[in-house]
Amino acid sequence: MTCDFKNVLVTGGAGYIGSHTVRALQSQGFNPIVLDNFVYGHEYIVRDVLKVPFVTGQLGDRELLENVLSGRHPCCNNQKCIAVIHFAAYAYVGESVISPQKYYRNNVGDSLVLLEVIHSLSQIDKSNPIPIIFSSTCATYGIPPDNSKISENFPQNPINPYGRSKLMIENMIKDFGNAYNMPSVIFRYFNAAGAHPKCDLGEDHTPETHLIPLVLQTSLGRRPEIHIYGDDYETPDGTCIRDYIHVCDLADAHVLGLKKVLHQKEQFVFNLGNGNGTSVQEVIKACELITGLDIPSRVFPRRVGDPPVLVSSSENACKQLGWTPRYPSIEVMIKHAFKWHQNHESIV
Ligand SMILES: NC(=O)c1ccc[n+]([C@@H]2O[C@H](COP(=O)([O-])OP(=O)(O)OC[C@H]3O[C@@H](n4cnc5c(N)ncnc54)[C@H](O)[C@@H]3O)[C@@H](O)[C@H]2O)c1
User: Fold this and answer.
1) Does residue 234 lie within any of the structural domains?
2) Domain containing residue 177
3) Structural domain tally of the chain?
4) Residue 161, preceding bond cis, omega within 30 degrees?
């Protein structure tokens, strides 16, 4: 497969999941073009590590988007984009509660501009509409009614502005699909974890809020202790249970989703998780075992809105995309992440 006519716009491609997906696309003969404002992502990742064409800018910049998608931008080699993979978003739940306007403007407002540009360019060649693949989240499910595995048809009742912003974008994508035949894949991720086995890509968020990097940074002495929010949940060890999915497995699913929607121009929704739950205490113990280091922790009261158990049923993605997670073991995710953290002193 050559790279001609294989330009794929990757918004937020300098971030954690986006950068791993860019690499997966490159390995499958696609030509990813990253658009990122670098508010959270890292320019050196796209420039020096992935060596991918990139555009520095805001997703809501209509003219810039039109230039990139239509192939007029210098980084496009005169080729239009055949699809968009849309990761760009702000994703801090706590911040979204304090500054909802920032989340609705950035996540919803900018996504609307993206959909409008995709729609108007798709009018030029109606037989080849540009599909969008969108990063949604299990946060759109809110607090599930029970602890059973969550499938795509569970009710979606997000409980914070971040989750609501993602659900609004899902609905916009569905409405554009129904009205204008815009093909799409909505992926609802559970907890992304791990790092690329080559150890040159990893999770580098500032501030960091995700459990595994926080625990590993604590093991390396970069944080004094790990905070456990609630040890009195109705779970075997009293701490919350989550479904961790290796970031490379998420990246693989995006490539499979892209191929499917290019071929079958319809609308799809898939959960992406492992279908296995791991508790906060189990994550800490596994990190201690893998690092060989003691990890100090302290229990705090429960946080508002933390469900006891969030575990995915990803059967649909496995069946319909032929997706099989390559790294389902939490130990492997932690090993890859630890190797990356040992070599990258992120600002904490
Ligand atoms: N990390 C997870 O566990 C997880 C779980 C569920 C869903 N998600 C979703 O997946 C996506 C990627 O997550 P991530 O962890 O890689 O986040 P990230 O912050 O590492 O990456 C997001 C990237 O988007 C860029 N960006 C944000 N808004 C932008 C805008 N308006 N214009 C241009 N660039 C913009 C940021 O600079 C960053 O590089 C997000 O949409 C997030 O909501 C992540």
Assistant:
1) no
2) 7-192+244-273
3) 1
4) no
CA angle centred on 245, ends 34 and 157, rounded to 5°: 85
Closest among 279, 303, 311, 298 to 97, alpha carbons compared: 303
What are the tens digits of pLDDT across the range 39-52?
A: 999 999 999 999 99
Cβ neighbour number for residue 343 with a 10 Å cutoff: 11
Ligand 1 centroid – CA 187 distance (Å): 13
Asked if the structure places residue 103 within a domain, the reply is: yes
Residue 312 maps to a domain: no
- Structural domain contains residue 69: yes
Distance 237 CA to ligand 1 centre (A): 32
Q: Which of 10, 23, 87, 112 to mutate to test the pocket of ligand 1 (most atoms within 8 A of CB)?
A: 87
User: d(Cα 11, Cα 318) in Å, to the nearest integer?
Assistant: 25
Per the annotation, the verdict on 162 as an active-site residue is yes
Lining ligand 1 with CB less than 6 A are 12, 14-18, 36-41, 58-59, 87-91, 106, 110, 135, 137, 189, 191-192, 205
Q: What is the CATH number of the domain that holds 156?
A: 3.40.50.720
Which residue among the candidates 40, 141, 162, 244 is catalytic per the annotation? Answer: 162
**For residues 55-67, average pLDDT:** 97
Q: What are 18-29's pLDDT values in tens digits? A: 999 999 999 999
Residue 303 DSSP label: P
Q: How many angstroms is it from 16 CA to the middle of ligand 1?
A: 7
